[in-house]
């Protein structure tokens, strides 16, 4: 399967920013946030190569990929 384009919603971008900022504030540095961001981005790259990697959710159009303590919710669209 060809690599697909991943598009983040505005809400997802803000959620990630808030999570990373929380850890920066809590830890007093950005080391953990950088590691977490890298881990999430690696998961996104895996999804771009294999969009059916995540498990199905109660909503048949939405899938979830567990990444550490977080889950990435996504939808695969034909276009």
Blueprint (SSEs and pairs):
Layout (H helix, E strand, L loop, with lengths): L9 H18 L3 H19 L5 E2 L5 E6 L2 E6 L4
Antiparallel strand pairs: 1-2, 2-3
Helix pairs in contact: 1-2
- Kindly state the number of beta strands: 3
Which oligomeric state applies?
single chain
Structurally, the number of domains stands at: 1
Helix content estimate: 40-55%
* Cα gyration radius (Å): 14 Å
Strand order of the largest sheet: 1-2-3
Mean pLDDT: 93
With helices defined by DSSP (H or I, 4 residues minimum), what is the helix count?
Answer: 2
Beginning-to-end CA distance, first to last residue: 14 Å
Shape: elongated
Strand percentage lies at: 15-25%
For the sheet with most strands, the description reads: 3 strands, antiparallel
Q: Structural class given helices, strands, pairing?
A: alpha+beta
List the helices and strands in order.
HHEEE
Low-confidence stretches: none
Structural account:
With 79 residues, the chain is α+β, with helices and mostly antiparallel strands. It has one domain. The protein is 47% helix and 18% strand. The protein has 2 helices and 3 strands; from the N terminus they run ααβββ. The protein has helices at 10-27, 31-49; strands at 55-56, 62-67, 70-75. Strands 1-2-3 form a 3-stranded antiparallel β-sheet, covered by helices on one side. Strand 1 (55-56) and strand 2 (62-67) form a beta hairpin. Helix 1 (10-27) runs antiparallel to helix 2. The chain is elongated and about 40 Å long.
Task: Compose a concise summary of this entry.
By secondary structure, this protein is an alpha+beta fold. 47% of the residues lie in helices and 18% in strands.
């Amino acid at each position: 399967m060809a690599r697909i384009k991943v598009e983040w919603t505005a809400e997802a971008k803000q959620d990630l920013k808030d999570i990373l900022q929380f850890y920066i504030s809590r830890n007093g540095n950005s080391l953990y946030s950088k590691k977490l961001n890298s881990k999430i981005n690696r998961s996104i790259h895996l999804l771009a190569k294999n969009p059916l990697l995540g498990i199905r959710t109660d909503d048949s159009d939405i899938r979830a990929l567990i990444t550490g303590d977080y889950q990435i919710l996504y939808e695969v669209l034909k276009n």
